[in-house]
Amino acid sequence: MKKNDDLQTPEWVWKELGRIDLDPCAGSGTVIALNNWALERGDDGLAGDWHGFVYCNPPFSQKQLWAKKMIEHGNGILILPERGSAPWFGPLAEAAGCYWVMGRKINFVGGPSSNNLGSVLFLFGDEAKRRVLDSKLPGHLVSVEKYRSR
Question: What is the pTM of this model?
Fold first, then answer.
């Protein structure tokens, strides 16, 4: 894992999303969800069976593994950097169907500054979309009408 893989989502982001059943890649002190799985406690979020509404701030060096797991689960929010031209972004956006571009940069807990390119919440399922639209999170919704690979 890389240094930035341990950065945590600040409370002002996840508190707006309502009750979260599972954070499958939480830090050891994270209290985002009813169930917070952390490697430090022997929990492997990639191997475990996800349940309910999931919030996932994955290690960015393993984003494609976590994205695949979220696509399979289909109910929750995956936060990743705003990198629309990256090879992984388009297929993930297509799988989600829509995403929320954060209207303010996030200073992740444990890091010196915010993500220099901003952040995106990939919304999986109607519940995820409703929660973000009902929240006070700054930003805008992007619906994916068509994706064309490179």
Answer: 0.92
